[in-house]
Amino acid sequence: MSTLVGTHSEDLPEHAHAPAHEHRDDTAAKIGMWLFLFTELMLFGILFLVYAVYRSIYSEDFHHAALELNVALGSFNTFVLLTSSMTMAMSIAALQKRDKNLSMVLLLATIVLGALFMVNKYFEWGAKIHHGLYPASEHMRTLPHGEQLFYGLYYTMTGLHGLHVLAGMGLLSLMLYFVVRDKIRPDRHVMLENSGLYWHLVDLIWIFLLPLFYVTT
Amino acid sequence: MYESESPEHAAHVNYGMYVLIWIALLILTQFTVTAAQLHLGAMGIIIAVIVTPVKALLVLYFFMHLGYERLMFKGMFAFAVSTLIIAIGFTFWTWCSDRGGWGRHSCLTRGVLS
Prior knowledge:
Chain A has one domain (about 25-215): Cytochrome c oxidase, subunit III, four-helix bundle (Four Helix Bundle (Hemerythrin (Met), subunit A), Up-down Bundle). Chain A has seven helices and no strands. Chain A has helices at about 25-55, 60-65, 70-95, 100-130, 140, 145-180, 190-215. Chain B is mostly helical and about 110 residues long. Chain B folds into two domains: about 1-70; about 70-115. Chain B contains four helices and no strands.
């Protein structure tokens, strides 16, 4: 396993000052990250199940409620997240190619795109709330039961996803700081890779949320 | 295949390939959105059901480097996804069997094809 740590210190005289006794297991770190991602998969997966069951009971209501959602905004946010996933993957590749500046720029772009996603989400939720479409509102109580459930799931699932975007942005900001301070280097970048995995998971979940709420009506 | 894993695997991935995957993901997204807007009914949903996992696999395989990881990672992923599919599949199975079975107007087709 230690052969996978990505450290070839003999090739990297500039990092010869790294302590010789350092023990790292990047494969173990990556396994840990994947295991964590699986728990996230279960969390959202079960919410997908709840959605599927309620959709099958209240298919008419779900169809009607979904028409209220802004497909253009949902699609644009998909474009934003897919692009951020690409810049994230490129940022890791740039660091491995020893282009620190490019890696930092791409990492910053990823964080900015995450912020753009949240700004869009703010306007989207804001418009819904402005129209009285929020849990337990006066207007919501007048809607059929199935539509109430649809909006409940919409706020729960996109809200939980939004929290993940915010957490990802925080994590990537920390990684940017580490890259700037050379705590993450070409020979020592598993933290950046694992943070990237988290960011891609956030993108992955959104890929499934889009057809569930916005597109397939 | 997994034997070819090397710690520098991602360094072999060039930027051009990431751009290609990104373009493919955008095209697939547009395809799903357009299909839904054409009001193709069940076909629009079937397209989404097929295209969405393809998009997910592209992200997993290329962006998350699962395609370049050793077999162990792929096995772990397959195990987790299988668990989820069993959890969802069996719950739906039980739930549907209690409500009219699997005919044309079963709970499943009402939910998916409505």
